[in-house]
Write a structure and sequence with these properties.
By secondary structure, this protein is of the alpha/beta class. About 30% of the residues lie in helices and about 25% in strands. β4 and β5 form a beta hairpin. The radius of gyration is 16 Å and the shape is globular.
Length: about 130
């Protein structure tokens, strides 16, 4: 719910357009090699979702871990959404208030998307728009 990427996909789904949010956690500057790996990892996941599991009123979120160079294979885990809030602080700036939050400080509910991603695995999460 904190992600602008997920918000964009949610808005598309509300208009009947299927979508998948892709986010790449980063704890360092990402290189061209990181993005190539991300594309290689995501392509089969996206094809599977679009071919077999796309459904109205549901969006998918894929969170990629930040792994060292040279790691080519990674576990893919379908897991639930972590509803823990992102710790935020609001900064009073000349143009107004700006919020700042560090994803690495977010709570990690065991087995949730945040825990899976921070554990070095790809987290794939099905998010229904209505209960």
């Amino acid at each position: 719910y904190h992600s602008g990427t997920v918000a964009a996909v949610r808005e598309a789904a509300l208009h009947g357009i299927p979508g998948i949010a892709l986010s790449h956690y980063r704890s360092r500057q990402l290189t061209t090699e990181d993005w190539r790996r991300a594309a290689d990892w995501c392509a089969p996941i996206i094809l599977d979702i679009l071919s077999n599991r796309s459904e109205p009123g549901v969006i998918w979120n894929i969170n990629l871990p930040c792994l060292p160079a040279g790691v080519e294979t990674v576990d893919i885990v379908e897991c639930p959404l972590d509803l823990s809030p992102l710790p935020l602080e609001f900064l009073n700036e000349e143009a107004g208030l700006r919020y700042s939050g560090e994803y690495s400080k977010r709570a990690r509910t065991p087995g949730s998307d945040i825990d899976v991603c921070f554990s070095g695995k790809i987290a794939v999460t099905r998010i229904p728009l209505v209960g």
